[in-house]
Amino acid sequence: MSALKRVQQWATFARIWHVYDAAWQNPFESAQVLKKYLKGMHKPIYHPMNDCGDHVIVLNSAEIALPGDEWKKRVYFHHTGYPGGASWTLAWELHNKDPTMVLRKAVYNSMKGNLQRRYTMERLHIFPDANVPKELMGNVSNQIRQVRPIPKRLDHYPEEDVTQFPKVIDYPKDYVVK
Amino acid sequence: MSLLWFSKNVLSKNSVLFNFRSISTTPQLQIKEIKEIQKGKELTIYGEIFKSPREPYVLNNNHSSACPVCASGLDIKHTDVLILSQFVRSDGCMLPRRITGLCRKQQKRLMPNLNPSWSKKDPKRRYGWKKFNKYFDESTIKC
Ligand SMILES: [Zn+2]
C-alpha cells in the first residue's frame, strides 16, 4: 500500500470533528444539515450499518432564532407516566430552562427512531455560548456553513459605510438637526 | 400652567415686544443645529449652520411626480438598516412626512424600529419570549 493510499484510508475512517455556529440559525433547518454530518451521510462509504458518523460541536445555541411568533406557539409535551402527569412547555420556557434543549430535540426528532439514534446523539456537543473546552476545540478540522445569513445591526457597520451609503432623501433646506 | 400665566402677563404688559414678523417667504437659511451655551449669567442661543453631509451621496430622482422611495424602485425590508436609518432622528424616532417628503403609502410602510446606541431598550432584557431571537421570512412580507 502506497503512502497516499494509506493516508486516504486513515482519512476515510477517521472521525472528523466539525464546528457549527448556531447564532441566528433556525434549529429545525440546522438539524437537517447537522444530522447528515452526525450520521456520516456526506461520506461515499456511508451505510446505515457502517459506523462512520462524525462529531459536531455547536456553539451559541442560546442565540438560535425562530421564525415569527414560534417561541410562544411551539409546545413540547412531556408525560411522567402518572395520572395527571402530562405537561406542556412552550419553546421559550424550555429555552429559559436549558438553552441547548430546543436544538438538541430538533436534531433528535429529525432522525428516525432506531437503535442508532441514541449513539448518534452522543456525537453532538451543544454549548449555549462560545466557551468550549480547549481539548474539544483542538479536534476541530472543519466548519459547517450556516443555513441563514446573520442580520447585521446598524452599529455593526463601520462609520464610513453608514455615511457613504447612497442616500434616498436629503434633509430639507430649513431642517433643524435634532 | 405657570408658563401660561407668565406668557399672559408678559403679553398684557408690553405687547409691542412681540410685534415682529415670524413668517418668512424663503427657507430660513440652511440646515442648522440649535446650540445653547451658558456662561455665568449669559445664555447664548445660536444656530450653527452647516452643509448637508448627505449631499454627495443622494440618489437623483428622475421622476418629477414620484416620491424618492417610489422613484428609486426599492423594496425596503426591516433588515435594510442602512436605508431605514436615513429616515430616523438621532433618538430613533421616524421623521415626519413634511421632512422625508415621501408619499403617504411609503411613509406608513417604513416604520423603522432602530434604537440609538445609548438606548436602554436592550432586546436581551425583554420579558418572556420576546427576549429571544426571531426572524421573519422576507419573501412573505407583503406591501
Ligand atoms: Zn411614493
Automatic annotation (TrEMBL), chain A:
GO terms for biological process: negative regulation of translation; translation. Keywords: Ribonucleoprotein, Ribosomal protein. GO terms for molecular function: mRNA binding; structural constituent of ribosome. Belongs to the universal ribosomal protein uL13 family. InterPro entries: Ribosomal_uL13, Ribosomal_uL13_bac-type, Ribosomal_uL13_sf. This is 39S ribosomal protein L13, mitochondrial. It comes from Aromia moschata. Gene3D superfamilies: Ribosomal protein L13. One of its GO terms (cellular component) is mitochondrial large ribosomal subunit. Pfam families: Ribosomal_L13. HAMAP family: Ribosomal_uL13.
TrEMBL record, chain B:
It comes from the Eukaryota. One of its GO terms (cellular component) is mitochondrial small ribosomal subunit. Pfam families: Ribosomal_S18. The keyword Cytoplasm does not apply. The keyword Ribonucleoprotein applies. GO terms for molecular function: small ribosomal subunit rRNA binding; structural constituent of ribosome. InterPro entries: Ribosomal_bS18, Ribosomal_bS18_sf. Keywords: Ribonucleoprotein, Ribosomal protein. GO terms for biological process: mitochondrial translation. This is Uncharacterized protein.
